[in-house]
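The instructor's notes for this session suggest beginning with a concrete chain rather than abstract definitions. Hand out the sequence below and ask the class to guess, before any prediction is shown, which regions might be ordered.
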Amino acid sequence: MTTIVLIGTLDTKGREYAYVRDLLREAGVEPLVVDVGVLGDPAFEAEIRAAQVAALGGERLEALRFAREGSDTRAHALAVMGRGAAALVRRLREEGRCDGVLGLAGSGGSAVIAEAMRALPVGVPKLLVSTMAGTSAGVDVGTRDIAVLSPVTDIAGLNRVSRTILGNAASAIAAMASAPARSADADGPLVALTMMGVTTPCVLRVQAGLEENGFETIVFHAVGTGGRALEEMVADGLVDGVCDVTTHELTDHELGGIFDAGPERLAVAGRRGLPFVAVPGATEFVNFGARDTVPPRLEQRRIVVHNPSVCAVRIDRDGLRRARQCRRGAGGRRAPPPWVLVL
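After discussion, reveal the predicted structure:
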């Protein structure tokens, strides 16, 4: 039977979890409840108790108890339970006991549940019902395919609104996990490409040419998470070659933009010895958020409002020099052949 790992804090949200557990059974899937609560006793016994999760995280549950919300031990407890939950779901997946994951949470619980979800491969259904959907959901999702559903209200009680939303969540994860498996057979070698608005025409032409010649392609949106996902997929050995047309994330990394993909950007393919083409696509500007987030020192530059949440600021000669040095450092020193860096 399809198994859904239902993970959350049964000490503070036990009633809601019991409701969703029963809905999953009605939907024809088997819930496997994992308790990650550290404040007190659970409302009902889970298949996997909080003490077991804490042990996987490296500590005893009793050492993680804290007297009240706002205690400075809270962050440590969340970190331990997050590590333990991640280790647990990896093991459950290997044992064939995890076909999907569902969690319901506020801010702290979302951090723990999302860490567990991020430990699973892309393609395993993951649904997080989180009150943080409109604020920090991007941090929780990271580079994984986590679906986030806003509960509208806090997850504190059952009413005509919450029953509807929790019912939708249970039905959604049951359907995702029970859907027929899609073929993972590749048509040919897999080439990763990077793209954002200004490089789209070029990337689409490259993609078409690769596919006409028997390659399978996968495109990443170069907005920070896209670049990190690309590097992770390359590191995991899932990609056969990289055509990195949009190296813009290096500019944001070097100049403080919002699309920073971190220091490993452009470094992994070379270390793995993959065929690698890097192009300085979109490196001539740095991205900030809404128009009023542009630093005053840059107000005299050319500024393009891409959408209400993102604007682009043209860099100057010094910024271009720094971005190029960053690019050469990532490619030239860290990427042994075979690779090509196009300038």
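Then share the key points. The two ends are 54 Å apart (CA to CA). Residues 118 and 144 are 6 Å apart (CA to CA).
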